[in-house]
Amino acid sequence: MAKASNLLLWLLAASAGCTSSSWRPRTVPLEPPTPARRVEPPKLGVESPLIQDFGAPPRLTVATTNASADQPQDAPSSDAAAKATEAPLIAQGQSNASRPAPKPPLELTEVLESVRNRYPPMLAALLEEDIANGRLLSAQGGFDFNIVAKSTLDALGFYRFSDTSIGLEQPTALGGLALLGGYKISTGTLPVYDGDKKTNEAGELSAGFRLPLLQGMAIDRRRAALSQAQIDQALADPVILRQRLDFLRVAARAYWNWVAAGKRLEIAEDLLRIALERDAAIARRVERGDLPGIDRLDNERLVVQRRTFVIAAERRFEQAAIELSLYYRDLNDEPVVAKRDRLPTTFPGYPSPEPQTFDTDVRSAFDLRPEVRRLQLLADRAGIDLDLAENQTLPGLDLTVLGTAPLDDAPYKDKKDFDLKATLEFKMPVQRRDAFGRADVARTQIQRIQFEAQFARDRIRAEIGDALSARVAAFRQITEFQRNLELARRLEQAERRSFDLGRSNLIFVNLREQATADAAALEVDAIAEYLRTLADYAVACGLQHSVGF
Known about the structure:
- The chain is an alpha+beta fold.
- It contains 10 helices and 6 strands, in the order ααααββββααααββαα.
- The chain has a single domain (2-56, 103-546), classed as Outer membrane efflux proteins (OEP) (Up-down Bundle).
- It has a 6-stranded antiparallel β-sheet, covered by helices on one side.
């Protein structure tokens, strides 16, 4: 009885180490079979069409009126002036109590935070972790503790007996070792050829192990599946990171498109305001005979034309706000269409590009970009397949040791002693084509991944170089467009003075105003494009926390 108890305690203690393993999956180097060629960064300073057409007229940064300085002004009476001054104050006092507090400008960091926490495709990407965890749990099921029970009753034959057994098996990762145990009991008269089933009245306990000596010792299907599931779990991180980088980049570009569309709308409204303010001054000059009546008619045409520009700009702004709402969401994960009161008053600062950091950024991107990490994990996964296939080319040679101990000594005196049996089993397919074929497949997959890794590095270098080139070009355009705007304003002011002095006409004034507005719009586009290239460059370098600058 003591011997049987000791066997059972030994079985339970040994099963505690079932998850450890002496085998570790190989790490497959991603170096290609042939030396990789260095891809030089693209030359900087190449001009490229970076300005996007938002389809709306631009905004004048400095707006002036065309009213003549010598035009008479109707002075209001003192009582009327007092009432006019008092009315807004009374209205303001009445409305301040119910007027909501103004909202702060919408910042890019707020949009990106919404993408990280509430953007549905981002939330769907995060589920990759749960999927990988489920696969890991499924692979761990290969090491579950197994119980097999069987009972046989023969009540009508020549030999009438019952035979009941319970088998226990605990697979481990220790060289493919499996711990065995069980209990069986039989009653009645058993035939001679079933003598192994005979037990004493209290039955007997058994404990032992099964150990592969060749095939399955270094690695087996259970351990291979578990290691690959752990790699799949690690693969979820680069998959999520790749999608997060893409989402942050698109959200940043949508934000700057929205800001630029808002600035263009302001330019169109200022251009309309100038025409409206000039209309009253032209009407007075026409009444005095200083200008022909056709000039006022032409100015009215300008008002109508610029009003259509404003309508088009409003549509472009609403379109940009709706697109931005896909990424900017409230606490209930509902899209928020940002209004004009959330527009920033000015663009943020734009630091000058630093081409000298290109090589450092490329080397850093090799470690940060998820593509290289993903390919390394895929290569390690294929390496496990190769290890398993090579191991299964070996013959199967399993050693099974099982000890049995009866719980009493009646009625069979020959079953009262402890018994120990050792069995050696050999098994091997002659051709072993399955194992050799899977080994060839695994080697080919590793070679393919090595070539993909080489191209991934080349592509990362090219993407960073292209983003840097676009950034440099956009920065250079900002300087040129600012100079262009300054010259356009000076020409507009000179043309307006000539019109006031009667040496020009409304057609030339309109052309100068439109040229100034176009120059202001080009400056807006250049700044917005530069800010978009900052997001592109951060994503190309794998810097997910630098997309919002």
